[in-house]
Design brief:
The chain has six helices and five strands, in the order βαβαβαββααα. It is α/β, with parallel strands linked by helices and 181 residues long. A five-stranded parallel sheet has the order 2-1-3-4-5, sandwiched between helices. It is globular, with a radius of gyration of 17 Å. The two termini are 30 Å apart.
Length: 181
């Protein structure tokens, strides 16, 4: 079965973040995922004794699709979004508003939703269409290769290879062998 990893602000039990995340998961994502043949996982639902960040990075890397809720621009969510984006793997971005979207990601299609009197079936239909289209096109981030090339050129010009070294460390943490490529 294909897998969706849901990246979202989770918060503590009974917090606003958890209540909203649970609502989005139960009302929008899970019904659509079931219909399209996906299982869904969120960080707090991983049954593991590993470090949380290791499990999250692993899921970001291995999941067939990642749905990212950028509502509130949570730093952890944005970091995890950056990893998935950098890997060039398929994702769908969702948010309660488009008002505070940073310029760097405004060109990405973002499904807007509400938790206050939502039109659940309409949001499910849009999410379903986005997932199906992402699956068909494999929505790979063709910019990732260009970003890597730019990073290499910048490092050569400036003599500062720290960004490349940090990228290599991150890739190594994720089990991606980039040394032979």
């Amino acid at each position: 079965m294909k897998k969706i990893f849901f990246i979202t602000p989770i918060g503590s039990e009974n917090s606003k973040e958890r209540t909203e995340s649970d609502f989005v998961l139960e009302s929008f994502i899970s019904p659509v995922a079931d219909k399209l043949g996906y299982s869904v996982l969120r960080a707090d639902l991983i049954n593991s004794s590993n470090r949380i960040d290791d499990d999250v990075i692993n899921q970001i890397n291995i999941s067939d699709l990642v749905i990212i809720d950028i509502t509130g621009l949570n730093p952890n969510v944005m970091f995890e979004f950056g990893i998935r984006y950098g890997l060039g793997k398929p994702f769908v971005a969702i948010s309660q508003t488009h008002d505070d979207i940073p310029l760097d990601i405004r060109n990405i299609r973002i499904l807007e939703y509400t938790v206050n009197a939502p039109k659940i079936s309409r949001i499910q239909e849009k999410l379903s269409a986005m997932i199906e289209e992402t699956s068909k096109s494999n929505n790979t981030n063709r910019n990732a290769e260009q970003i890597g090339q730019n990073m290499a050129i910048e490092a050569l010009q400036s003599g500062d290879t720290s960004k490349i070294e940090n990228f290599m460390k991150l890739a190594d943490m994720m089990g991606i062998d980039v040394k032979d490529n």
